[in-house]
């Protein structure tokens, strides 16, 4: 019995030492081994709890290796897209269009396809690409001029053709464009505006979505499976190419602004947003708020752990 008591005391001392380390990292771990104190609404599976427990005790020096690259412009850049490790494009205000063929070691300014702001860029392959353009509401314009339009290239950016996607919606502002192949694509933006094409952009059809919030990010695995996120904690998904869009459960503040989303397959995805919000799927189409859960594992300074 004495040996067992000594072992238990040793385990407690080891756990207190871990808690002391966690305290310095602003994390708190429950006093049972490998348990993290989470919000009751958490849907994170147990294996993930083990991973989160281990993550909380990792050295704080772990970081990603990022290096600054010179763009050669002072223009505000809005988006970047690479088709492989070497070839990529970046776009920004006043028609700024940059290209690289060496992984960003050198960026070359391209001929501006428009004087309007370029909000997004997407390339299906090295030849076929798309730009989202927005005309400034303060610029001189005609009554029937659209606020937003697309530009398409089939020559690797050597030439661009204007494409109207918003139909009669002259004041609709678009922010993103996504294609799964040369024929199937979507563009979306303010007030839940979402348009789809199945013929390479020759025609566009507005799709109905159960929100009027600004749509900011999207991800598609193929022609049928896709996700959209945006303001007001908007999280939508489709399994039929957008014929029907349904609301997903995003367990976060109802006013949260979700800016981007990515999926590796139909069951594993992540969304990020304002104020450090990170969401992860715990099941297909269900998002769990990691940020809220992390807040629940922060050390309470009023509690002693020694």
Question: What would you note in describing this structure?
Answer:
By secondary structure, the protein is mainly β. The protein has a single domain, classed as 7 Propeller (Methylamine Dehydrogenase, Chain H). Helices cover 13% and strands 33% of the residues. It has three helices and 21 strands. It has a five-stranded mixed β-sheet. The longest helix has 23 residues, at 2-24.
What does this entry show, briefly?
The chain has 306 residues and is mostly beta strands. It has helices at residues 2-24, 46-56, 290-295; strands at 77-82, 88-92, 97-100, 108-109, 117-123, 129-134, 148-153, 161-163, 174-179, 185-189, 194-197, 205-206, 215-220, 226-230, 234-238, 246-247, 249-251, 258-265, 268-273, 278-283, 286-289. 13% of the residues lie in helices and 33% in strands.
Span between N and C termini?
24 Å
The proportion of residues forming helix, as a percent range, comes to: 10-25%
Shape: globular
Uncertain residue segments:
14-62, 291-306
Record field, number of beta strands: 21
What portion of residues belong to β-strands?
25-35%
Instruction: Look at the helices and sheets and give the structural class.
Output: mainly beta
């Amino acid at each position: 019995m004495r040996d067992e008591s000594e072992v238990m005391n040793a385990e407690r001392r080891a756990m207190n030492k871990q808690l002391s380390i966690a305290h310095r990292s602003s994390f708190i771990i429950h006093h049972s081994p490998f348990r993290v104190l989470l919000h009751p609404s958490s849907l994170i599976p147990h294996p993930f709890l083990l991973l989160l427990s281990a993550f909380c005790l990792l050295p704080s020096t772990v970081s990603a290796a990022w290096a600054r690259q010179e763009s050669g412009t002072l223009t505000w850049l809005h988006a970047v897209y690479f088709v492989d490790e070497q070839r990529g494009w970046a776009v920004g205000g006043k028609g700024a269009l940059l290209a690289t063929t060496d992984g960003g070691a050198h960026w070359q300014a391209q001929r501006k396809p428009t004087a309007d702001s370029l909000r997004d860029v997407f390339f299906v392959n090295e030849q076929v690409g798309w730009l989202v353009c927005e005309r400034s509401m303060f610029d001189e314009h005609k009554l029937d001029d659209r606020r937003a339009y697309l530009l398409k290239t089939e020559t690797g950016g050597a030439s661009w053709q204007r494409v109207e996607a918003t139909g009669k919606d002259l004041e609709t502002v678009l922010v993103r464009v996504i294609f799964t192949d040369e024929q199937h694509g979507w563009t979306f933006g303010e007030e839940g505006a979402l348009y789809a094409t199945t013929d390479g952009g020759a025609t566009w059809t507005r799709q109905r979505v159960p929100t009027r919030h600004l749509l900011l990010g999207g991800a598609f695995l193929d022609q049928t499976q896709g996700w959209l996120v945006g303001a007001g904690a908007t999280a939508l998904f489709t399994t039929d190419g957008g014929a029907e869009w349904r609301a997903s459960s995003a367990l976060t503040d109802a006013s949260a602004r979700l800016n981007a989303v990515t999926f590796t397959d139909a069951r594993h995805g992540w969304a990020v947003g304002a104020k450090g919000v990170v969401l992860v799927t715990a099941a297909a189409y269900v998002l769990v708020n990691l940020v809220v859960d992390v807040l629940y594992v922060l050390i309470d300074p009023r509690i002693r752990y020694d």
